[in-house]
Design goal:
- The chain is α+β, with helices and mostly antiparallel strands.
- The protein contains three helices and three strands, in the order ααβββα.
- The chain has helices at residues 8-17, 22-58, 101-115; strands at residues 65-71, 81-86, 90-96.
- The protein has a three-stranded mixed beta sheet with strand order 1-3-2, covered by helices on one side.
- Strand 2 (81-86) and strand 3 form a beta hairpin.
- The chain is elongated and about 55 Å long.
- It starts with 7 loop residues before the first helix and ends with a helix.
Length: 116
């Protein structure tokens, strides 16, 4: 479900304002909705990339990496996650493979926030 709702009245207003036809506006909005689902998953990836680059640049760790891995073999992770940090080398987040995607992202973000 999109954050924004499109109806015929809004499509008509946008079409008139930008000299487009309403069908084009609706097609663009449909494409936006498809991409917005992917953006939700990419937001955390952008944060991780920024953190990784910051550490590489400011901590003289040119090969530093951040990884996230599902773990189904550790019963202690049920519904949660944990992290491991190797100074100047890596930061690894393990999370329960049974988590829903949204919950997995919350667990990963939590682990990143604790250690950084």
């Amino acid at each position: 479900m999109s954050l924004y709702a499109m109806d015929n009245q809004k499509a008509k207003y946008i079409a008139e304002t930008f000299n487009l036809n309403e069908e084009s506006v609706m097609k663009l909005f449909q494409r936006y909705e498809e991409l917005s689902v992917m953006n939700k998953k990419q937001y955390l990836a952008h944060i991780m990339r920024s953190l990784k680059q910051y550490i590489r640049d400011h901590c003289k760790a040119p090969f530093f990496r951040i990884t996230c891995r599902e773990s189904s073999s550790n019963p202690e992770l049920k519904g949660t996650g944990c992290a491991s940090y190797k100074k100047g080398q890596s930061f690894t987040v393990l999370y329960d493979s049974q988590l829903e995607p949204k919950q997995a992202r919350i667990v990963i973000a939590h682990e990143l926030g604790i250690c950084f």
